[in-house]
Design goal:
12 helices; EAL domain-containing protein; alpha/beta; binds magnesium ion; binds ligand C2E
């Protein structure tokens, strides 16, 4: 941070700050315009039950199909708007788009669960449940149990009692919850005790290194154990190789998502990908691999 020392310095700093604010404002306006211009898209990444060799659903991941810059990932534009109400517009767009997509996928497999990431600011709004109920009503053919919401375990969920009651209201509608990036936050343990989650999602940073880093292996193992003792489901993200999958199954985690299974893909590629997914047997075989 620059120190304000004299009159000249102050003016210089001021102009600098002004510039920063302006840039931030412009970028936010640009993202807001992208929503209106219908430039957002959802990609989908399959979730696999490795032991059964079955696709159990998809995670919806946001992309910005920028007319000049091409496909942009959420890490590049969500942080610009996550503290403004633009994130609410985006979140509601994502919910509608996922439900619209589910209308056709439910005919293909009514047991799929589609996960949607929800920003903390959106989720904690006083009218979240009310508006979600209204959005669900726009898609009467989609059973709410096909929808799972992922909330970031590391996000500042300020008022746990409030969050808990929102989760209970959503669960009464049939929607389930996963705690995303589990283990990376400050309060994993107290969240676990106080939030009615259905699923823990092991953070990919632990999964990625677990075959070479004992500490990460212990962390992955501990999260799986926690899920089991709390009676929750558990899924690993960032599963890039069969060896990762084999280790996870030996530790008691059968559900996985990662580049080793498939990268996120546009909606119109999903059904043909599922039809041609021929690696199921390989993953099932990995279930019986000896200890590494
Ligand atoms: P996340 O929910 O933890 O999603 C997992 C991220 O890891 C995705 O990145 C996915 O493409 C990537 N990934 C999946 N498998 C692998 C793998 O095997 N290796 C590696 N290296 N990466 C893998 P993406 O799509 O860039 O999304 C980043 C984050 O942005 C998400 O993390 C989520 O927190 C947020 N996000 C994405 N879509 C939405 C959305 O619709 N709404 C909100 N609020 N946040 C979103
Ligand atoms: Mg997620
Ligand atoms: Mg995650
Ligand atoms: Mg993440």
């Amino acid at each position: 941070q620059a120190k304000i020392t004299g009159r000249n310095r102050y003016h210089f700093f001021d102009a600098d700050l002004d510039e920063q604010v302006r840039t931030h404002y412009n970028r936010r306006t640009e993202v807001r315009a992208a929503v209106r211009a219908n430039e957002l898209a959802l990609y989908y990444q399959p979730k696999l039950d490795m032991r059964k060799g079955r696709i159990i659903g998809m995670e919806a991941l946001l992309r910005w199909a920028h007319p000049q810059r091409g496909i942009i990932g959420p890490g590049e534009f969500l942080p610009i708007v996550e503290h403004s109400d633009v994130i609410i517009d985006i979140g509601e767009w994502v919910l509608r788009e996922a439900l619209r997509q589910l209308q056709s996928w439910r005919v293909f497999d009514a047991n799929w669960v589609i996960s949607v990431n929800i920003a903390a600011r959106h989720f904690q709004r006083h009218d979240f449940v009310e508006r979600l109920t209204a959005i669900l009503a726009e898609y009467p053919d989609v059973p709410p149990h096909m929808l799972e919401l992922e909330i970031l375990e590391s996000s500042a969920l300020s008022d746990i009692a409030h969050v808990r009651s929102i989760m209970l209201d959503c669960q009464a509608l049939g929607i389930s919850f996963a705690l995303d990036d589990f283990g990376t936050g400050y309060s994993s343990m107290s969240y676990l005790k106080r939030l009615p989650a259905d699923m823990l999602k092991i953070d990919q940073s632990f999964v990625r290194n677990m075959l070479v880093d004992r500490d990460d292996l212990h962390l992955v193992s501990a999260v799986i154990g926690l899920a089991r003792s709390f009676g929750l489901g558990v899924i690993a993200e960032g599963v890039e190789t069969i060896e990762h999958g084999a280790m996870l199954m030996r530790l008691g985690c059968d559900l996985a998502q990662g580049y080793g299974i498939a990268r996120p893909m546009p909606a119109d590629e999903v059904l043909s990908w599922v039809a041609s997914f021929d690696k199921a047997a390989v993953w099932q075989a990995a279930a019986s691999l000896p200890p590494i």
